[in-house]
Design goal:
Blueprint: H1 5-14, H2 17-21, H3 30-43, E1 45-46, E2 49-50, H4 60-75, E3 94-102, H5 110-121, E4 127-132, E5 145-152, H6 156-181, H7 185-190, H8 193-196, H9 198-217
Antiparallel strand pairs: 1-2, 3-5, 4-5
Helix pairs in contact: 1-3, 5-6
């Protein structure tokens, strides 16, 4: 399912210069790359560096306006559900890439908004809904609904990887660093990542080989 051009242009236009320049263009699908390049050109920005003069020092009125904007953003930080009146045509075949239980009286976690923003920045269409959960004997009476982040089914693997890279891997990295700091010098020398995470390295090798084999099978690439 191709990304919606109008939606992507609007999304990139809403980002700050720093946020726009922080996007890795190589991670975007082709349609998103085109919109991204257009927005860089429109702002006179070059990847990794601003091509215009720095912004002037803010005036007192600017600081007040910024505070008002921040207050408004805080009030609407959890307005993450997509508009039901504008459901995408791929929704029937959508795949769930992230979910969070909703509990009455609690606001939805910022992780739902973070997941949505990460997918949108990568040019992957997504839809956020608050859905009713099927009844389960072991479930708490309060756990009747769940927040779901959905993407087109054919983009399931890519979307999952984007969330892992942009959200979950950061938390894992911090946990790993904290663990390494507790080790003695001798223990640290034995903590070889390729041994400790041998399953992860093996998976990367396997998916790469499977892809290369399929390219050769279809004669889209010559065997090495």
């Amino acid at each position: 399912m191709p990304a919606d051009l109008q939606y992507l242009r609007k999304h990139y236009a809403s980002l700050s210069d720093d946020a726009l320049l922080g996007i890795d263009r190589s991670d975007l699908v082709e349609t998103a790359q085109k919109c991204y390049d257009e927005e860089l050109k429109r702002r006179d920005l070059t990847t990794g560096r601003r091509a215009r003069r720095p912004d002037p020092e803010p005036k007192d009125s600017d600081v007040t306006d910024l505070a008002d904007e921040n207050a408004y953003a805080d009030e609407n930080a959890y307005d993450v559900a997509s508009d039901d009146s504008d459901q995408p045509d791929w929704l029937e075949d959508a795949a769930e890439v992230y979910a969070r239980i909703d509990r009455p009286g609690n606001i939805p976690g910022t992780d739902i908004a973070d997941a949505r923003d990460a997918l949108e920045a990568a040019g992957i269409p997504c839809y956020v809904e608050l859905a009713e959960r099927p009844e389960e004997p072991s479930a708490s009476p309060e756990q009747t609904h769940v927040w779901r982040v959905l993407v087109p089914g054919n983009l399931n693997l890519r979307a999952t990887s984007v969330l892992e890279r942009d959200i979950f891997n950061q938390d894992f990295e911090q946990t790993w660093k904290a663990h390494l700091e507790t080790l003695s010098d001798e223990e640290l020398r034995e903590m070889n990542p390729q041994v400790v995470f041998c399953g992860l390295f093996d998976r990367v090798e396997r998916v790469t080989k499977a892809y290369d084999d399929e390219m050769v099978r279809r004669r889209l690439r010559r065997a090495k």
